[in-house]
Automatic annotation (TrEMBL):
InterPro entries the UniProt entry points to: BBS10 (IPR042619), GroEL-like_apical_dom_sf (IPR027409), TCP-1-like_intermed_sf (IPR027410)
Gene3D superfamilies in the cross-refs: GroEL, TCP-1-like chaperonin intermediate domain
Organism: Geococcyx californianus
Protein name: BBS10 protein
GO biological process, one term: chaperone-mediated protein complex assembly
């Protein structure tokens, strides 16, 4: 229930509604509209190439070496984004903030990016789609990316004064997510409505379990 409802203060109660898909409490870091179903990737690490691995010290001994290193990073980052494009990836859902280079190449190769998703959001998306986060750093950047979700739509949504990302997924399980948007004049009213609805849903769930038995 926590991932499938959103409280929006400052709007009348009659503005409450049920929307297909889920709402991410973020705006697009980069938006490239695409028609129809799109392939989406979950990532939990920066896609900007690193000069050294964790725990490894990289020493620069000259300005020329520094410039060469930056060009390598830039080229490697572009290769990763090209690899995503060649696999028809149109949406990147990231739990971390991506660098400027990643956003630049995302716009260049028509890939929308949503950053800074919570651990709960990433886990929930992974559960309903059946895909695991993508690990980009491997020697082979020319093969297929099999572990991608399918988004049936992905669009911005303005609720009150905040912008959200509204996305629908082809579910890998019986659950077809819908998000409940609760509107009210103040947060306290929305919290009361959310608690009442959650209690009602819990009661219905217990009732259906009893009938099944």
């Amino acid at each position: 229930f926590a991932q499938l409802h959103l409280a929006v203060p400052g709007l009348p109660v009659r503005s409450s509604k049920v929307l297909p898909g889920i709402l991410l409490c973020r705006d697009f870091a980069a938006r490239c509209p695409a028609q129809g179903h799109v392939r989406a990737l979950l990532v939990t690490q920066p896609l900007r190439a690193a000069l050294a691995g964790p725990g490894v010290e990289f020493m620069v001994v000259s300005e020329g070496q520094y410039g060469t290193s930056l060009r390598w990073v830039n080229r490697r980052t572009e290769d990763i984004m090209k690899h995503l494009q060649s696999n028809n990836v149109k949406l990147l859902l990231s739990s971390v903030k991506q660098g400027e280079e990643v956003l630049y190449y995302a716009k260049l190769y028509s890939i929308s990016v949503v950053e800074c998703l919570s651990e709960e959001e990433v886990s929930f998306i992974s559960e309903i789609t059946g895909v695991s986060p993508y690990v980009p750093f491997s020697d082979n950047l020319h093969g297929e990316i099999p572990d991608a979700a399918v988004a049936t739509f992905c669009q911005p949504l303005l609720l009150g004064s905040k912008r959200y990302v509204h996305v629908g997924f082809t579910s890998a399980c019986a659950l077809q997510p819908h998000c409940l948007v609760l509107c009210g004049p103040v947060d306290a009213v929305n919290e009361q409505h959310a608690a009442a609805l959650q209690g009602a849903l819990t009661m219905l769930q217990q009732l259906f379990k009893s009938v099944d038995l």
